[in-house]
Amino acid sequence: MHIEAKELSKIYGTGESRVTALDRAGLEIMPGDFISIMGPSGSGKSTLLHLLSGLDHPTSGSLTYDGRDIYTFHDKELSAFRRRCIGFIFQQFNLLPVLTARENIIMPLLLDRKQPDNAYLDQLTKLLGIEDRLTHLPHELSGGQQQRVAIARALAAQPEIIFADEPTGNLDSKSGGEVMDMLESIQKELGKTLVIITHDNRIAGRADRQFMITDGILTEVTA
Amino acid sequence: MMKSYLSLAWKEIKAQKVTSVLILIAMILSTTATAALGQSIGILQSMRVEQAASLNGDRYATFHQLSEEQNEMLHSDPRLKDVGSLINLGSVELKDSGLTLYLREYQKEALKAYPDVGTVEEGRLPQGKGEIALSRDTLKYLGIGERVGSVITLPVSVMRMRDDRPAYEYTADFVLTGILKNHYKGYANGILDAAVGEGTAKDLLPQRYYLFSADFKTIDRERFQSVVDELALQIGVPEENIQYNWVLLNALGVDYAEKEGEGEDKGFPFMMAACVLVGVLILLAAGLVIYNILKVAVTKRVREYGTLRAIGSEKGQLYALVTVQLLILCGLGLPIGLVLGMLSAKGILAAATGLLNPKLFLADSAQALDASIAGSDADILPLLVSVLVTVLFTILASFPSARYAARISPTEAMSGRSTKIRRRSRKQKRIRNFEAFYARLNLKRNRGRTVITILSMVMSITVFVALQSFSALLDTSRDVQKMYKGDYAVTNETAGIPPEAAAQLEDHESVAELAVTKLKYYEQDGEGNVQIDQDIDLKPSENLQIAAVDETSISGYAPGLPKEDIEEWKTGRACLVKNPIPYTYEGQEIPHTELHKDEVITVNGVQLRIAGIAENPVCIGSGEFPNGVQVIVTDALYDMLTGDDRFSEVYPTLEEDADAESFEEWLDEWCKENPGTYWLSYRQAYAQMAESFEQIRFLCWGLILFIGLIGILNIINTVYTNIHTRIGEIGMQRAIGMSERSLYQTFLWEGAYYGLTASVLGAVLGYICTVLVGAAATDGLKLTAFPLIPVLEAAAVSVAACLAATAIPLRAIGRMSIVNSIETVE
Fold first, then answer.
1. Number of structural domains, chain A?
2. Is B252 within 8 Å of B48 (Cβ atoms)?
């Protein structure tokens, strides 16, 4: 899926309290790209991710997926688009505490009134090494295991694009490294587009294309 | 120290505006309700005593058939007060009305105990010999003009109580000195009163009938029964000559000998019980709301309390902090609720009693009842009790939350670990409806909160179903419907109503149906024979009565009669029998006939098996039962046994849209064509009572809405809390593609589950209450029919209320930004 962001700006407040979180950012993402966006805290990287994934609306600018402006979608259409085309991985894992690992993974499918493809689910959970943790509740899993469940959830509906917001931020370095290895291999083996936000140089360095954001201004880092 | 708590508690209250407002509303509602109920009970009690005194005389008991000497002894007894004597001069049958006029000579101040009898509209009360005062109705029935000063001649008949001698009959002239106000309390028993001037009895009555009845009260109410017993022994009054004024004694709560036998006074105690039950349930519901809201408030601020603990707060200090918050709210809510409760008590009471039948409160009209309410003052005690109970419940409700706050571990509170959920069933199964599945799991997320929310709804439903049972018990219209077979009773006690005349009545365009009764008396002659061939061994003074009733009303005379017996009765091979009423004379039981089920009797050559013993006799006119053996048979058999096909009484029921006024005009003409026939209308009373039952139901709905409001407060609080504690989750779900609609469905399912669970539990508890109410009314525990309609109504309303309570906070979700939600730290 070809993503094109043009002149994306996000401004909060007015007058003296006006804050420009993102200033006319432009970005083109091709299918199968692995992109990292780096920047210090409060630089606007999460704002960019929210705008790119359609979670938020920009103050100005446009965003198209294969030429379609997703900001013109109604809630129902946009929800279905996120369900089917986008996978999210959060820093806090954000698993539903009342659901088992398996139920958390298949939730995007259930929301779409679909039943899971068990063969694909087996393959995915084996790949992530959580096949024996599927009946556990989130609080019974370690941080690394919870994030793997979150990755499986992001991939359950077989989306083309995955947005990951500081996916290793809540993990120790060993678990963080394992999670990144998995994400990278999935991106390569399954041919997904991966957009990752991080403030860790080592993680950012693994991406094919690296972007830097400072005070809302996005620039591509060239080698 | 206390000041710092106060200021911190104030800050907490201000910081948690929604929570504080919700608690305040719950507190005001419960205080208002309990204060109003407490006051109402007090007002009702004092009103009831007043009404009881006016209904049946302001006296505790009466000794009858006293000699002059015995009467004097009573007047001089130091244990008694308000002693008043009267002499019964006899009775006059009022032609074609079914009513009897009783002439009584009230001595000195005795009439004061009967304010209804002694209210003069014109002229004055009789003072000397030969003077009389009569009501307007009496004058109308006597066919005499309403002219004070005119001379009235009355044929009077007087008997001693339980006398075997024939009545003493005399005719006397009276001067009409006053016209009394009509009062209708005696109509139910077919009695009208006349007041006769002092000295008249001595002139008119032979010594044998010159007897006094003395009304009195005991100075010491607690010793009432023992004083009565001592007096009876001392002056020689047999037990059967002692009449207890059970209406007033019951109202005052005085114990007396015959109390067990008096079952007619259940309405009021049940009303009181209903008030207390409703009060307790309101308090419980409000207590649960306060508990829930506080618990949620404390849970939301667990980090703050953790911080306070970390910087050195002691457990007791946190305990105090939560309790002080509630006490501040108590300080605000209780006075407001109290004032509202006191202001509304009389209003609510007037409205409530206006909806109910005034007879329930022993008043004969709504106006009399209103006047009584306005003039009565409740004791301060019930008010104080209700306030104390409310405070107690409120403080109790805060304890678990205060305890929770005090026990918060600083390290756990600060760590912000993920929620631990207990879930037993984790089997992999096909999930068809994710929203419903997720909603079910969410209910288990905080079991305590779910239980409390459901419990407050359960209370509402239980109260509703139980109130329906209470109201059914208070429903006098059903008794009236049972008592009367039509809108009118058309009676002819002498010649009877010929079938062709009855047919004419039945064929009238306004008449929907016509029920009938036939009744014939056979008196014994000097040799003990009756004018019909029969083999019943009748005792002296007993007569034989043959009665016919409709097939449909037979079970009303012998409740619980087996189906096969009813069938046999219908075929004419069996009958019902009403045995004579046993009585004693001068301490000795008079022999009486007593027939039993399955015995065989022969009447006019027809052998009849006794299918059952009737509880109530078939009566016509004034409803008297001349003591004797009554054989109740079918209409056809009656004609055969008696050789008479005329009806004694017929009961037309009008079409719903009939013009009653023109029918009554027609009925007057019809009566003239059938001499000796007169009619009485139950239509008005019937309609009023049926209407009052509908109004009782309406009142129940009012109460349920009040308690329901408290329940809804709880649901709103729970749903709001669910949303606020799950904002991050909601944001994540929205991010990964949950539509707004899907999110709405999840919360609506949660609301529906609350409502449905509460409905099921409420229905069960309500049914148990219904059975208990039935048990209290009948003194026997038995399963009654399941109150399906009330349960369905309550279920529908509670589910709707839950959905509505859920829908309101859902608007907040709709407006919520996904990004802000995800970034919320739970």
1. 1
2. no
B428, B441, B732: residue with CB nearest A98: B441
Kindly list the residues from chain B whose CB atom is less than 8 angstroms away from the CB atom of residue A86. 737
- Nearest chain A Cα distance for residue B406, angstroms: 25
Q: What is the pLDDT of residues B605-664, one digit of tens each?
A: 899 999 999 887 888 866 667 778 999 999 899 999 998 899 998 989 888 888 888 998
Query: Is pLDDT above 80 for A51?
Result: yes
Which is nearest to B156 in space by CA: B140, B174, B182?
A: B174
The rounded Cα B299 to chain-centroid distance in angstroms is 46
Å between A108 CA and nearest CA of chain B: 7
pLDDT in tens, A90-104: 888 888 888 899 999
Residue to substitute from A45, A110, A112, A132, interface B, most B β-carbons within 10 A: A110
Q: B399 lies in a domain?
A: yes
User: How would you write A58-75 as a 3-class SS string?
Assistant: CCEEEEEECCEEHHHCCH
Place of tokens 């009789």: B126
Q: Are residues B208 and B91 in the same domain?
A: yes
Nearest to residue A82, comparing CAs of B737, B441, B275?
B737
Distance from CA of B762 to the nearest CA of A (A): 28
Residue A171 contacts residue A91 (beta carbons within 8 Å): no
Provide, as residue numbers in chain A, all residues whose Cβ is less than 8 Å from the Cβ of B738: 79, 83, 111
C-alpha span between A11 and A9 (Å, rounded):
7
A76 interfaces chain B, CB cutoff of 8 Å: yes
User: Do B64 and B44 sit in the same domain of this protein?
Assistant: no
B449–A contact, CB cutoff 8 A: no
Cα B330 → chain centroid: 35
Q: What domain range includes position A47?
A: 3-221
pLDDT tens profile A135-185 = 999 889 988 899 889 989 998 988 999 999 888 887 788 888 888 888 888
Domain housing B451: 430-484+683-826
Do B728 and B748 belong to one domain?
Answer: yes
* Chain A residues with beta carbon closer than 8 angstroms to that of B824: none
- DSSP code per residue over B172-236: EEEEEEEEEPP--GGGGGTEEEEEE-TTHHHHHS-GGG--EEEEEEESSSTTHHHHHHHHHHHHT
- Interchain contact, B736 vs A82, CB within 8 Å: yes
The token pair that represents B561 in the structure block: 């009669």
Give the count of domains, chain B: 4
Minimal CA separation from B714 to chain A, in Å: 23
For A177-210, the pLDDT digits (tens) are: 888 888 888 888 888 999 999 888 888 999 999 9
Smallest CA-to-CA distance from B112 within B59, B63, B188 is with: B59
pLDDT on residue B211: 92
Q: State whether B618 and B691 are in the same domain.
A: no
Which residues of chain A neighbour B429 with C-beta distances below 8 Å? none
- Statement: residue A66 has pLDDT above 70: yes
Which residues in chain A are closer than 8 Å to B426, comparing Cβ atoms? 100, 135, 137
Predicted local distance difference test score (pLDDT) of residue B272: 66
SS3 B614: coil
